[in-house]
Amino acid sequence: MVRLAVAVLFLASVVAAGVVDDRQDGPPSRVASTATSTTTTTTAPETTTTTAVPVTEAPTTTAAPTTTLPPVTPAPTAVAPVPQPAGDVKVLVTPSGVVVPVTGREASGYRVTTPCGRSAVVADGTPVTDADVVLDAGHGGKEPGAISPTGLSEKGINLAVVDHARAALEQAGVRTVRTRTGDYRVTIATRTDIVKALKPKAFVSVHHNAEPDGPRDGPGSETYYQIASPESKRLAGLIYEETVKALAAYQIPWVADSDAGAKYRTNVNGDDYYGILRNAKGVISALAELAFVSNPPEADLLVRPDVQKVEGEALARAILRFLNTRDPGSGFTEPYPRTSPAGGGGGSSNCADPAL
Question: What average pLDDT does the structure give for the chain?
Fold first, then answer.
């Protein structure tokens, strides 16, 4: 029995030795289990490093460090630039609607010339860089112009006619600026500063007349042109033609000067008599005396809004013909010599500016 037990033990030891040899003769074992390899992990704030405990069959492996990027700063939000009008600002329409010529820019706003000819700074307004036509409503404020026997003043009719003419021209696509937009005075110098700044294709100053020579068979309209300008003469002839045609529809006792028509008037130097035409030299200009407010039957017509519109639209038609055709106009006449002044006004004495 003892010999048998010894034999069994010997046989078991031989079998165990064979198993160990088989594992060693094969390829190196790369088992990543806890039985053959132990892994230790250390974590830093932004870098993780993994170190493997050395094993006979495999080399030590170290993970590459993590690259830390600098924080990204968001791009600043783009601020849209404040729109600036194209070209130079020549004229400003103030918040109260007053039209003034611009003489410069300052940090606090626009440097302008007021209606009375003073210098001022306006912080805001609508800039105007150009215009096709400038319309001038004569007189205003404490300068009423001609007055009818019933107290109707020329200044209000002039403004109403200009407003109707402007509306018709704007509807036709003609950019139009007014020198006066309310019942306030504007000096001749400021009016023509607006004109010379904008350099329109045409400038018309609108008036209504007084002191006729006598009766006339039809409207006694008068228009004046710049003596040295053939185009000014053509403009005056077209305004005369359209005005007479429109007013002739009303059958009333008309009055007129004996030289009614499209004409010129010179001063003692042979230059244009009227300052509004003389100071606007370089721009095609005309002065229109559409009817006689001093004649009661005509005053009764002129107080009517529908007649004011008729006059304004006649003026607009004449200007459109001037701009779009080569029509010569009509009614040209040779004026008789005049020695009496045409009336005062137009200066800055005792002038009160409106709120800008």
Answer: 83
Distance CA 261, CA 182 (A): 29
Cα separation, 18 vs 322, in Å, equals 124
Q: How confident is the model at residue 224 (pLDDT cuts 50, 70, 90)?
A: very high
Residue 250 tokens, joined: 């009303």
The answer to which of 46-50, 257-261, 274-278, 344-348 has the lowest mean pLDDT is: 46-50
Domain ranges within the chain, ordered by starting residue: 87-129, 130-324
Please name the residues in contact with 21: beta carbons below 8 A apart, sequence gap of 6 or more.
none
Tokens of 170: 């704007």
- Return the HEC string of 269-323: CCCECCHHHHCCCCCCEEEEEEEECCCHHHHHHHCCHHHHHHHHHHHHHHHHHHH
* DSSP annotation string for 217-240: SS---EEEE-TT-HHHHHHHHHHH
**Helix, strand, or coil here: 106?**
strand
Nearest Cα residue to 127 out of 170, 161, 177: 177
Q: What distance in Å separates the CA atoms of residue 252 and residue 203, rounded to the nearest whole number?
A: 30
Looking at domain 130-324, its CATH architecture is 3-Layer(aba) Sandwich (3.40)
